[in-house]
Amino acid sequence: MIVLSLSKLFTDFAAIGAWGTAVVGLLQIRNERHLRRTAARVHQASKISGWLIDAGSVPAKGSLNNASDTPVFEVVVSLMAVQGRTLASRQNMPLLPRPFRAYLSVLPPGCFQITLPSSGRAPGIQFELEVAFTDAVGHFWARRGNGALEELPVTPIELYRIPSPIDWDYPTTPCWSVPLWESPNPDFEGSGSP
Description:
Layout: H1 2-42, E1 48-54, E2 60-66, E3 72-83, E4 101-107, E5 110-116, E6 126-134, E7 140-143, E8 149-152, H2 156-159, E9 173-174
Antiparallel strand pairs: 1-2, 2-5, 3-4, 3-6, 5-9, 6-7, 7-8
């Protein structure tokens, strides 16, 4: 009688363990699928970047890099104040006027130099580039000035409330055709290009 109830108890524990293992396995499969889907969704967007070369010049100079194999579209490049005076929230975008933006209809694969209208240096304010775009499958993204990638719920045009008509441009100057610095050493043979 005692032996029978102990064997029943062990059988019940084994059954519970088997069910627990099955549930954990199914949850792990679901999590791995979600991670794969997320990785596939951000694959192209994670390869888009932008940075300032000279925020103090008029116009400001920057670079955009599309390290993916396909173009991105409706690219809005904004000169954003990231440090200094009290900054307005993204919902109150008129902090920097519309002229401090560049609009590219397409950013093909590669690295390109761009210029953005600017007023030059501002005391106590540091600027960065913010790049918002539509990827090749139609998802909307923003690469913030601090490098963070954020999926957007609306198009870049809607995000920044940009009125029509938009004067779309196309990047034409590859990064390697513009020297990034002049060497102070006359014996240096490099010109800044790769």
